[in-house]
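pasting for ref
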Amino acid sequence: MGQVLVQLIPLAVAAALSTVPITAMIFILLSERRGTTALPFLSGWVIGTAAGLTLAALAAQALPGRPRKLGSLIGTLEIVTGSALILLGLITLIRHRRAAPTDQRPSWIEGIGSFGPLPALGIGLALNVRPKALLLFTAASLAITGANLNVNQSLVAILVYTALATSTVVAPTLATVFLPDRMEPRLVAARDWISAHGASMTAVVMILIGIVVIVAGTNR
């Protein structure tokens, strides 16, 4: 169990530092409708993360092969997944350097604060099917499968990943619900910092995590 957590925690941190859900959360919390959209968005993000990893883990459990061959297959898939993370990180870094400052975030984020509860819930769920999120689910599910955990241990691993991966959305949302006046200037500062540096940070994290996943795959 300890070994799989060592692999899962960096992956969950990479998910937690994803700038798209954090930016969406900030725009919602700075909007006038945050009272009706913040918690649905948060619920969609948390539920989608837990469901995404659960489905990925179930799919990984269906991989064919005897234990020794299965370990080799998981290692190969981890190397492929890690390479894809590195490639995605490099593409993100190149796009960030070529883009103008006004193009650093998706246009839909600007208006997300005006959405209703159901669209906010849907966006929270949909953000878990981005390429980065899917690659992280794949890497995490392979780590869980490769550790030969029982059902209870697998559930604990999924809960740990979900808690860490969603913490950067959960904590600010709950803090803003209870302390809106104190949180507002911090949210503005975070929005401005992410606009300037978020894409570069995300790219570097993906590249580093990709290396970690590749190393784990080569050690199978």
